[in-house]
Structures are given as structure tokens and as C-alpha cells.
Specification:
This protein is of the alpha+beta class and 241 residues long. Helix content is 43%, strand content 24%. A hairpin with a 5-residue loop joins strand 1 and strand 2.
């Protein structure tokens, strides 16, 4: 008694978390399918499907999302929105959302920021601090492994390679993302994570109360159904995110 959450409670929490992930993945596929329902000619859709499959989403669910987005299964009224602003400690934030109610979404995002000592900015207020790049992260526990990943990345056509705390991040142009990923896989290297992201030019060091408040803000944003992704320029303690 009283020794923490029950197995059922943990399972319910895990189901809820997985449900949120699925909701975001389905929205991404639906939006991507507007530019064509064939993943062979739609790179964004192809990446969305890959993410969904790696999260164990069924092919039936994926197909339904594609049909809805491509108009084959009734129109959807989702729209993509990007918000820019600042969090605690002057940390710059880009928040990407998909929503069927922009009034609700902007209110939720504004509330999340102001509650954590930040504020919503105007379009372009922080975007200049970020660039859109393909980012593949590999676990490299030894200098020898770092060197092997570096060689493979350069051979694959990557633009830059960054080593930090046992991880090697391979950077490339968004249009080369899939070819670089395929080449790295063919060379025997599977990424810990991979995505096309908004990467900051520089990071702001945060610690103590600011870092705690920022982490709480990130959790808050993750809980918002309309928020798909968020990017920031904070250098968090003991984290490379």
C-alpha cells in the first residue's frame, strides 16, 4: 500500500502518453498528404509515415490519415501555425502547431508562455536565430566511433558533424536528409534520433530556477494537443537538447 502508482495506473498513464503521440503523428500525416497521397513523391509524407511506423502505429490508421489529408476521405479543416516567443531567461522559442481552432491554440500557447515568465512574440521575432536543417544523432561512446561516424557522414554528403558528450550530431540540408540517413544506415550506423528541425545558431546557458521553469514549460507544451513540435536555444544542464 502507498508504494507508488499501481501497474494499472502506470499503464493508463502510458496509454494516455501514447495516445497524444499518435494524435500528433496522425495530424502530421494528414497535413503532409495534402501535397499528394503517394509517399514515393512526397518526402514529408514519407517521413511522417516512417515516424508513425517506428511508434508502432497500424498501417490502417496511417492509411485513414492519408485519405483524410488527400481529400479521398472527406476534407479536413486543420491548419499549420507557427508561433515565436520567449521563455524564462530570454530563451527563444519556436512552437509549431496544427489546429482546427486557431483562437483556442494561440490562447493556450500564450497562457503556457506567460505562466512560465515568457511571452508570445511577433512573427519573425526569433526565427532569424534558427535555421532549418536535417539532424541525425548517433551514440558514439569512443573517439574511434566518433571518427567512423564522421567519415561516413562526410561520405554521405553531410554539411557538418558535431561531437558532444558521447553523441555525434550529423547536420545536412533538409533536401538531403533522406539520402544522408539512407547512406548512414547502409554504412551500419542507425541514429538515436533523426528529424528535420529548426536548429539555433547559438545556445543560451540556463541553470537553477530558470532551467526548472523552462523544463516545466516544455512539459506544458508537450501536453497541449495542438502543439506538434517546439524548438529552443537553451543549453540545459546535463542535456544536449
Amino acid at each position: 500500500m502507498g508504494r507508488g502508482p499501481s501497474i494499472e495506473g502506470r499503464k493508463n498513464a502510458e496509454d494516455a502518453r501514447r495516445g497524444k503521440i499518435f494524435t500528433k503523428l496522425i495530424r502530421e500525416i494528414t497535413i503532409a498528404a495534402r501535397n499528394g497521397g503517394d509517399p514515393a513523391t512526397n518526402a514529408r509524407l514519407r517521413m511522417g509515415i516512417d515516424k508513425a511506423l517506428s511508434s508502432n502505429m497500424t498501417k490502417d490508421t496511417i492509411e485513414r490519415a492519408i485519405k483524410r489529408g488527400s481529400g479521398a476521405d472527406g476534407a479536413d479543416n486543420m491548419e499549420e501555425l507557427r508561433y515565436e516567443g520567449y521563455g524564462p531567461g530570454g530563451v527563444a522559442l519556436i512552437i509549431d502547431a496544427m489546429t482546427d481552432n486557431s483562437v483556442r491554440t494561440v490562447a493556450d500557447v500564450r497562457h503556457a508562455l506567460t505562466k512560465h515568465g515568457g511571452n508570445l512574440g511577433t512573427s519573425g521575432s526569433v526565427a532569424f536565430q534558427f535555421s532549418r536543417v536535417g539532424e541525425l544523432v548517433f551514440a558514439t561512446a569512443t573517439p574511434e566511433l566518433e571518427e567512423k561516424v564522421l567519415e561516413a557522414a562526410l561520405e554521405a554528403g553531410a554539411d557538418d558533424v558535431v561531437n558532444d558528450a558521447g553523441q555525434t550530431t550529423v547536420l545536412c540540408a533538409p533536401e538531403n536528409f533522406e539520402s544522408v540517413k539512407a547512406a548512414m544506415s547502409a554504412a551500419g550506423f542507425e541514429p538515436v534520433s533523426d528529424a528535420v528541425v529548426m536548429r539555433p545558431a547559438n545556445r543560451v546557458a540556463v541553470s537553477g530556477e530558470v532551467a526548472e521553469t523552462l523544463s516545466d514549460l516544455f512539459e506544458w507544451l508537450e501536453e497541449l494537443d495542438d502543439v506538434q513540435e517546439y524548438y529552443h536555444n537553451a543549453a540545459l544542464p546535463d542535456s544536449s537538447s
